[in-house]
Amino acid sequence: MSPAPIALTCGEPAGVGPEIAARAWAALGPALPFFYIGDPRHLPAGTPIIEIEAPQDAVEASERGLAVLPVDMGPPARPGQPHPAHAPHVVEIIARAVDLARSGAAAGICTLPINKKALIDGANFAYPGHTEYLAALAGVDHVVMMLACETLRVVPATIHIPLSEVPRALTPASLERTIRITHDGLRDLFGIEAPRIAVAGLNPHAGEQGAMGREEIDWIAPLIERLRAEGLSLRGPSSADTMFHADARRLYDAAVAMYHDQALIPIKTIDFAGGVNVTLGLPFIRTSPDHGTAFDIAGTGAADPTSTLAALRMARRMADLRASGAPA
Which of the four pLDDT bands, split at 50, 70 and 90, describes residue 19? Predict the structure, then answer.
């Protein structure tokens, strides 16, 4: 029996998602069967479209064209100009993909970018973003965002908040939760039996023995030591400016950073086009390209599919690992 295919949600139809989906099939074909959930009329002209009735049809359909589980989203899509009528369908398509993944009909989900403002304007979307909506659909209280490429995996302990709010938002409980979810994700999704995690300090030079801040001394280092005593392989708190060169990266499987830019600057420097957003802590596999809707280039053919290709391949590897029953 063929493995279940990956579900690729359409994201914002006025963005680069539809053209990237078409280019992903052109690059992967039957080698990595996936199916697009969205309106086939929104795909670029000339795309070989095979409409399917069920996910399992995607395996055979991928031999001949882009498998599409069709959804009538109403008005046509105009690149760079989101239509409010599309927004409720975008939200419903994400929920449908989750149902398919949880039932086993889809091996995992790869989500093309959404535009939060378009969803608020057209569907009163009440979530900060994709990840929070997926967590709500799954009934999960806490998830973790990982950015991954071939040579680096990073997890920001705090995400889209002002830098001035980071010290208040970062607590022993939240950091411990992030570390534990990261540890479990490395085992369950990446097949790393004994994950090694490096933890950054909050302050420059990890506080430099209290001269530049006391968070490392007062609670970050004690938390790391307590978790290390439980058997977790942890390093840190380490100075973030020395954690990401090639020799340092060989010492860990993932790095937990304290705030958004501390995590994302190194991975986007190392592999700007190929980074993948992975959500850890969900009961199903979810990956996403690490870029937005790019309204400014939508419809021009200039969108780079590299990150989406990497996200689909990573979802497939994770699904195959789970299916194999490989020990974690």
Answer: very high
- Cβ-contact 254, 182 below 8 angstroms: yes
Known binder of ligand: residue 268?
Answer: yes
Q: Is 117 annotated as a binding residue?
A: no
What is the pLDDT at residue 208?
86
pLDDT tens digits for range 199-257: 999 999 987 888 888 999 999 999 999 999 999 999 999 999 999 999 999 999 999 99
Counting Cα atoms < 13 Å in the Cβ hemisphere of 118 gives 25
Which DSSP helix (H) or strand (E) runs through 117?
A: helix 116-123
**pLDDT value of residue 28:** 97
User: Phi, psi at residue 122, to the nearest 5°?
Assistant: -100, -20
The reply, when asked if residue 131 is annotated as ligand binding, is yes
Does 130 show up as a binding residue in the annotation?
yes
Average pLDDT, the chain: 95
The annotation status of 160 as a binding-site residue, yes or no, is: yes
Fold of 1-143+274-328: Isopropylmalate Dehydrogenase (3.40.718)
205 is in an annotated binding site: yes
In the chain, ranges of CATH 3.40.718.10 domains: 1-143+274-328, 151-270
